[in-house]
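Example 4.3 (complexes with small molecules)
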Amino acid sequence: MITIEDIRKAREAIAGVTKYTPVLTSKTLTERSGVEVYIKGEHLQTTGSFKIRGATNKVKKAFREGARHVIAASSGNHGQAVAFVAKTLGMKATVVVPENAAKAKVDAIRNYGAEIIYCGTTSHERIERAKSIATEDGAVFIPPYDDPLIMAGQGTTGLEILEQVPDVSAIYVPVGGGGLISGVLTAVKESRPNVKVIGVEPELANDTQLSLKKGEPVTIAATETIADGLRTNKPGELTFPVLQKYLDDLVLVSEEEIKAALRFALERMKQLIEPSGCVSLAAVMKHKSYVPNEKVVALASGGNASLSQLGKWLEVEAHI
Ligand SMILES: *Cc1c(COP(=O)(O)O)cnc(C)c1O
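Answer. The structure with pyridoxal-5'-phosphate bound is encoded below.
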């Protein structure tokens, strides 16, 4: 398992590439929810999501060890992050994306200079292809979450939150494969164990909730939640034990609740937070039973939303 020392080292390694993102507040949200709400703005991070933290930590290590070519299998934020870091270091990047990948996403990855390879429609097919290219070309495969350097890099978000909101009582974190939350859990629980860390999943992608209940990773069927960064259908082998050890609670949010949070962020806070990044805000918006003056952080994990779908998502009113 990773330790807080790994996260401190990651922090030094990634400084200069990643941003120390701001923490935002919303008076409306604080008044209506009865808790002081802070939003850690990873939607304002370089490449638009926290994924750049882990990717930078892992790709830089590969570079120091002599690698000059990295490969990832992701049409989303991880693909963009790997492409960006590789470009920064003057390395070659290849990103394997599904045949039906959205053009806007592929263009974003290509704009960072990566070579795109289309392959199949399942993540299994893409990962196999990426790994075989890695073997043939001597490239280093960069996994999206199940890797100690990736987890440690994502955990640097946790160190920043503890500095920015020193008397925080609870942190809500989106859960996909668990790279982000396992890093945040390690950073928080190994320095401030009384701070609660709560995972958030869409109701439609509750693989981690089911896995925690069963005591081992379980696989769910493919899901269509609008939170596309959280569609992973099984927790990671390295990330899951960290959740089992440290996680305080896991809550689920509906598609309607995610849309309401997205609309609130955009309309009231003027912030574009993508659906995956809104689940933490959605969870805070429906948790109103805390004692007054309690400080709660919602980790807004990313902001790369499909603008063509935004209109459909905004049909939901933002009642809070
Ligand atoms: C990848 C991603 C997540 C999920 O992170 P994991 O490390 O897979 O749990 C959440 N939000 C956004 C915006 C992402 O890109």
